[in-house]
DNA sequence: TTAGGGTTAG
């Protein structure tokens, strides 16, 4: 009696005082100990019984085994009981056998469970169910379904618990046809109206992406518990219907009392792909208010929420303040660091896990391996590889994949291949990682060979395979041999309907130089997503079609598509290249409105746009304060100051950057050297050039060398420039000789100019610029017979000079002008305005520099031809079509002519207008008779 | 019976 009421003290007293005890007394006492949860004492008691040879009943043994499972830390005691049971023949009892297999399942030893299960002479539905529970808890739904099939073959009748397990496993496997099969079974079995079964059905349909069925079941349930509500909320959440999932939460609070931590976790998981700005901080507050901020799982989702929004600092804060952390918390933060590019922090986290003896799983290693993506981290990656082998995790499929991926990303392809070959099973992820590595680091042949081997091994390719293989064909010259055959394969294998594959095809054709095929694919695609549009933006940008990029961006907007970071970056950089401030400003405004203000790429693209549109004030205003400025931001700032002639600011900024501990990069030095070159700061430029290798260990690239040649050449130090070319660490290219030729033109050095021109023609026989530059060099020095011979050579080789043109953009209309153009509808007014300008500036001291006229004619003719220059026509048109006092913006496809430059200066003084001119190379910013380039360009 | 961490591409 006492044991039945849980009163163990009096029961124990009575037992101890009993003069005679029979089997029943011992068994009753032991059951009592189990009932009150004194499991360890029960096991000791049982040992004593065994020693004394007291018989026990199968019921008592089963309850004892169950107790060992329930305690969570009594596996070894359970195993001892198992040993006794095996010796005394109790295993043939179905209750005992089931209890033991359940015990092993609880401790994750499913193979032991299965062994016991297979040796059992009799099994009931609970035995089958217990086996399922083991696999389900281990996260192996395919095994659960295997057991389900076995049960059906043997004709076992299902109970509520086993049916629920089967249903949810089916959902996890996302196997729709199995789902339908199971539904039929559920209806026949008569278990359909059981609460747990209905809950599982809601959850299964959620996992299968069939939200309508999930909702139907939920709506028709006769009773609902918290799990039902949570399941429907999760169904909405998993399928991206975040508003609905919040609505469920709202209804729950009205119609159902309980909201538990699972509800909150579900809601938080939605915030991964929802507008973080709108919901994130509020939800965090709510979690604290409801007192769930101490539940590990809730905190983990909270952490994941910040991580998904790219806010690793906040995620870190959540982690630090968690009252209890589990393995998933550590792994989540590590993954967050990896996603945010904080590789060192991620690896540090793994180190402290190991150092403090925390448990580490294959997931921890997977994240750590993903952190090692660049050459500097190769050593760390190799150590991890060693650890993986030592800890016996090498055979884990996902670890193997992560290893191949790591070596692939770094470009250690022989290592990547070696790991792949050692893997017990090579799945498509492993092959894709290898192919991706080849695509990134080696030639297309390697990637294609790997693809063929993969197919020969019978591993089915998926869309990612196709995307990866296509990624190896992103260069001109491989279209016929590789690109087109791949496209043919894609069509025949049925991958063409996949939007990702189509996007990659668009990119492939564009990078192979066939933009019209990209355009074709794009036009024929009806399920375009943002990535499709982005691929098309990149395709046009790659071909230098900035206007088309902007047109596409505005189409995206008119179709109501959500522009993402990539679209904005691409749009802004197109606006920067075209120097169209208005479009750039609009895009930037929209990006800010949509919450992308903090995005590093967009921020830099916008700053660069303002920079290239001449709005230096805006650049300085918008860049983050120096304390958290990224390297690209510093580079943009240096370039901006250089572009506008603030050379002291250039040096100041560079030194500030060094003081902040930022290591300058390749681009920083390009910006610095260009600034020096434009400012005529020759010695300072040379000093910076020396710093590149001496102080920062960077190997000078061809761009840096071109800058130095420009620097020396423009200032007339042509002999030094020539010596520099002969000694520089990289092979001279066309830009080198073009720069030298340009300088020879400025300084009238005909001999060196000729030599440079010869080198240039060898490298670029089709290029018109060499002929134009030589011809201009001869013309400005009056060598008209040489001008004529260059012209004849051009005719002979059928090389056409690129026509100069200038344009003005007013509202949405672009007006373009060629030399002496008379096609504009307002031509008469334009030429009249030009006459006014001529008169006005001559009165204030303008004298034409006729050496800039490149024909051998008399002075008057020369002056006349200067007044036909496209940039003057554009200027006249712009002045007459824009309000008094406003800034005039003009573009030219080639370099501005020297005399036009002087005309612009005079006009800016006489009219008081600010004029901004973008030519092929740079920006000129005229105000009150002075140009920002200080006449040195 | 419901919720949280991982590998390939983008």
UniProtKB/TrEMBL annotation:
PROSITE patterns: PPR. One of its GO terms (molecular function) is zinc ion binding. The keyword tRNA processing does not apply. Gene3D superfamilies: Tetratricopeptide repeat domain. Residues 845-937 form the DYW domain. Keywords: Repeat. Pfam families: DYW_deaminase, E_motif, PPR, PPR_2. One of its GO terms (biological process) is RNA modification. PPR repeats lie at residues 22-56, 124-158, 225-259, 326-360, 427-461, 529-563, 630-664. Belongs to the PPR family. PCMP-H subfamily. This is DYW domain-containing protein. The lineage of its organism: Eukaryota, Viridiplantae, Streptophyta, Embryophyta, Tracheophyta.
